[in-house]
Design brief:
This protein has 352 residues and is an alpha/beta fold. It is built from 12 helices and 18 strands. Helix content is 29%, strand content 25%. A 4-stranded mixed beta sheet has the order 3-2-1-18. The chain has a 3-stranded mixed beta sheet with strand order 4-5-6, with helices on both faces.
Length: 352
């Protein structure tokens, strides 16, 4: 699995349409999604948006996205919009013959799919929390079919938001999510590690144990907690308020990062990315607000903004580590009501 900053052939997304996910602000969430898609098409090769034939969705996308946009609408029905978690995790084979598909990709497909693999993890909507999820379970298979990419099924149950890799063979993930009985009750620790190493081609795994940020319903996805910005630098979610209920968990995650790096004799820089100063809420409900949920395109880093005094600080921190990319802040308060943000909505497809 290449690091996210490696060249993309495109980005997969799904149109947000689930009224239960955004019961009071769906249209506003869709507007923020449209802005995200527009920036992706300006800074990546293509955006592939899964739609369910909803006439309103098609009309909105076709009229609101610029005519020359590199957006391609794909007829793939979904239950919800979190493509990071149920779309395939794309990997690149070391030898082209390892993953050669039986047929040719469609003419609009901007890469050689012969050495692309699409890992299809078992998906159960974050431990069975949000049924139905039958349509989302099929997305990885349908995307592989659409692009004529070799499907690589896995019996391991997890989501793409639980995975964070660099190009030096290191994977970051969390015990609270991947080892949760609501996903993999019959898997041993050794079996889980083996499957992750086989499917992703990583050598070492660093496990965080500090649990999720407040409001996160994923049992602790890594993409809200710690992210690589290059092969030897990790930014991590942090608060400097010792009275914050999240402080102990975040402190434990930092200790786990240090211990894991020391275990493999890795000299990495660890950079704090402060959480919003004010608690992010909507109608009295606390929603997860983390600047770690940024998404890296070929030319930009798209960072969630929460109308908080620390929005600019997050942009400044990330700009220091992405000097050759535009660091762009986009509104995310309405999308985040669905308990995710830009990284949760996107899944990169590597260029080959």
């Amino acid at each position: 699995m290449p690091a996210e900053w490696q060249p993309h052939a495109g980005t997969w997304l799904s149109w947000p349409h689930n009224q239960e996910t955004w019961p009071h602000n769906l249209k506003k969430a869709q507007e923020e999604f449209r802005r995200l898609v527009n920036v992706i098409t300006e800074t990546d090769r293509h955006a592939y948006v899964c739609v369910s034939g909803d006439e309103m969705a098609l009309e909105f996308l076709q009229t609101q996205i610029p005519p020359k946009s590199k957006t391609i609408l794909c007829e793939i029905p979904t239950n919800d919009a979190w493509a990071r978690d149920y779309a395939p995790t794309f990997v690149v084979a070391e030898q082209l013959s390892d993953l050669r598909p039986s047929t040719q990709p469609p003419p609009w497909f901007p890469t050689d799919s012969a050495n692309l693999g699409a890992v299809d993890w078992r998906y159960n909507a974050w431990g069975g929390k949000y049924p139905p999820f039958d349509l989302d379970q099929n997305v990885a298979r349908l995307v592989a079919q659409e692009t004529q990419t070799q499907l690589m099924p896995s019996k391991l149950c997890l989501e793409g938001g639980a995975l964070e890799v660099n190009d030096a063979g290191i994977l970051l993930t969390t015990r609270s999510c991947v080892l949760n009985p609501n996903r993999n009750p019959n898997w041993s620790f050794q079996e889980v590690e083996s499957e992750l190493k086989i499917k992703l081609g990583v050598e070492h795994i660093i496990w965080l144990t500090g649990d999720a940020i407040t409001g996160d319903d994923t049992d602790g996805h890594i993409d809200q907690l710690a992210r690589f910005v290059d092969d030897t630098t990790i930014v991590y979610a942090w608060t400097d308020d010792r009275d914050d209920p999240q402080f102990a968990n975040l402190k434990q995650n930092l200790a786990d990062l240090k211990q894991g790096l020391e275990k493999w004799d890795l000299n990495y820089d660890l950079v704090p990315l402060l959480l919003p100063q004010e608690t992010v809420t909507f109608r009295g409900q606390r929603i997860p607000g983390s600047y770690c949920n940024f998404y890296i395109t070929n030319e930009a880093v798209i960072v969630p903004q929460f109308e908080d005094v620390r929005d600019q600080l997050a942009l400044d921190v990330l700009f220091e580590h992405f000097p050759n990319r535009n660091v762009i802040g986009l509104p995310s308060r309405n999308l985040s009501v669905g308990l995710g943000s830009f990284h949760c909505l996107t899944q990169q497809m590597p260029e080959c």
